[in-house]
From TrEMBL:
InterPro entries: GDSL_esterase/lipase (IPR051238), SGNH_hydro_sf (IPR036514). Keywords: Hydrolase, Lipid degradation, Lipid metabolism, Secreted, Signal. The keyword Secreted applies. GO terms for molecular function: hydrolase activity. Its main location: secreted. It comes from Nymphaea colorata (pocket water lily). PANTHER family: GDSL-LIKE LIPASE/ACYLHYDROLASE-RELATED, OS01G0748500 PROTEIN. It comes from the Eukaryota. GO terms for cellular component: extracellular region. GO terms for biological process: lipid catabolic process. Belongs to the 'GDSL' lipolytic enzyme family. It is found in: Secreted. This is SGNH hydrolase-type esterase domain-containing protein. The keyword Nucleotide-binding does not apply.
Length: 82
C-alpha cells in the first residue's frame, strides 16, 4: 500500500470524526463514541528506512546522525500532535 504522511493521517482523522458527528447527530455523542475506541498509530518506520536505506532518494542520511535524526522526527511529530 501507499504511505500517508502524518499531516495526511491527521486530516483523515478529522474527516472521520466529522463523519461520525454527522452520523450520530452531535459532537457529544461522537465524543462519547470515540472515547470507547482504541486508537493506534505507527510512525517513524518509513522515515528511518527511507533515510538510511534509500540514500539515492533521500539525502538526510548524510545530513544527520541517527540521534539527531530522531530528535528531528520527535520535534516534527510534537508539532503535529499539539
Amino acid at each position: 500500500g501507499g504511505r500517508i504522511t502524518m499531516s495526511g493521517q491527521i486530516q483523515n482523522y478529522r474527516s472521520a470524526v466529522s463523519a461520525i458527528v454527522n452520523v450520530l447527530g452531535d459532537e457529544d455523542s461522537a465524543a462519547n463514541h470515540l472515547s470507547q475506541c482504541i486508537f493506534t498509530i505507527g510512525m517513524g518506520g518509513n522515515d528511518y528506512l527511507n533515510n538510511y536505506f534509500m540514500p539515492q532518494f533521500y539525502s538526510t542520511g548524510s545530513q544527520y546522525t541517527p540521534e539527531d535524526y530522531a530528535d528531528n522526527l520527535i520535534e516534527s511529530y510534537t508539532q503535529h500532535l499539539t
